[in-house]
Amino acid sequence: MNALTLPDIATQIPAHEQALDWVGMQGIALPINLAGQRINTRADVGVSLDDGNARGIHMSRLYLALHALEHNALNPATLQQLLGEFLDSHQGLSQQASITLRGETLLSRPALVSPLAGWKAYPFEVRARQGSWGFHVELQVEVAYSSTCPCSAALARQLIQQRFIEDFANQPLDHAHLLAWLGSPQGIVATPHSQRSYATLQVRLHEDCAELPLVELIDAAEQALGTAVQTAVKRADEQAFALANGQNLMFCEDAARRLHSALREQTAFNAFHLRVVHAESLHAHDAVAVSRWNWSNT
Ligand SMILES: Nc1nc2c(ncn2[C@@H]2O[C@H](COP(=O)(O)OP(=O)(O)OP(=O)(O)O)[C@@H](O)[C@H]2O)c(=O)[nH]1
């Protein structure tokens, strides 16, 4: 059979006239270039099917256009060009186009004290949409950190005070004795609970943004929290981490407020949504806080 004679179902009239909000493909494997790295991603791409009398979109056209991202650096301009090609190849059918890329970037992170470093993985998503309202890009990233409960810390301190009263009642304070007591498990009789915690940050990029500020977003979040999870750790690093946790006691509300204020300082974003999850070790459930600024789901 000759290619010219191949049946083209997409050109047929559908049984029911109906426009569709989104039609496309999900989970396409695609290597991209972002922040100087080659990253394996999964792509969801699609367009609206505004012509209710068209049977289907042309998926192969979206799939083939997508591969431009394999060779170019991923940035707002390359995304806008791609969505423009999606729409150009669907003239008369579609007025909206979108792409979501999901991947994981690896960043080398130095130890807190020792001259060591290791890799940390940050799951991210890039979402771009083109429609009658214009073009916009959103960036999402997940950042892991440690949170020590401030209530638990205060309760532990009180127990330590009570033990001090009991152990040093009716005796003069001896410096060496007190120092030894402070360094013993019977002195520090209680410890606060800490948990591995996650912040999911979604930001909408300002129109003037020429790059995808993924690393900048991660750095700003980790700096605001002060207790990013570590990579290579020797005892000196662990001690510095214990100090960082003690100096940054956080309820989930505290973490959300810190991140909110750090994101408000960034000029590259014109809207954001953030969610923090503290995977409680006190409870079998999570403590969660959400905050947003200018954020809508359009
Ligand atoms: N629209 C649509 N296509 C599908 C679906 N599942 C698989 N496909 C296939 O996607 C393939 C590509 O479709 P098109 O892009 O229209 O391919 P084509 O007609 O060869 O390409 P053009 O000449 O550019 O239109 C076809 O073989 C379809 O059968 C589906 O659910 N919807």
TrEMBL record:
Q: Which reaction does it catalyse?
A: GTP + H2O = 7,8-dihydroneopterin 3'-triphosphate + formate + H(+)
Q: Which Pfam families match?
A: GCHY-1
Q: In which pathway does it act?
A: Cofactor biosynthesis; 7,8-dihydroneopterin triphosphate biosynthesis; 7,8-dihydroneopterin triphosphate from GTP: step 1/1
Question: What Gene Ontology terms describe what this protein does at the molecular function level?
Answer: GTP cyclohydrolase I activity
**UniProt-annotated site: May be catalytically important, residues:** C149
Role played: Converts GTP to 7,8-dihydroneopterin triphosphate.
UniProt cross-references to NCBIfam families, sorted A to Z: PRK13674.1-1 (NF010200)
Family stated for the protein in its record: Belongs to the GTP cyclohydrolase IV family.
What protein does this entry describe? GTP cyclohydrolase FolE2
Q: Which organism is it from?
A: Pseudomonas guineae
Q: What is the lineage of its organism?
A: Bacteria, Pseudomonadati, Pseudomonadota, Gammaproteobacteria, Pseudomonadales
* Gene that this sequence comes from: folE2
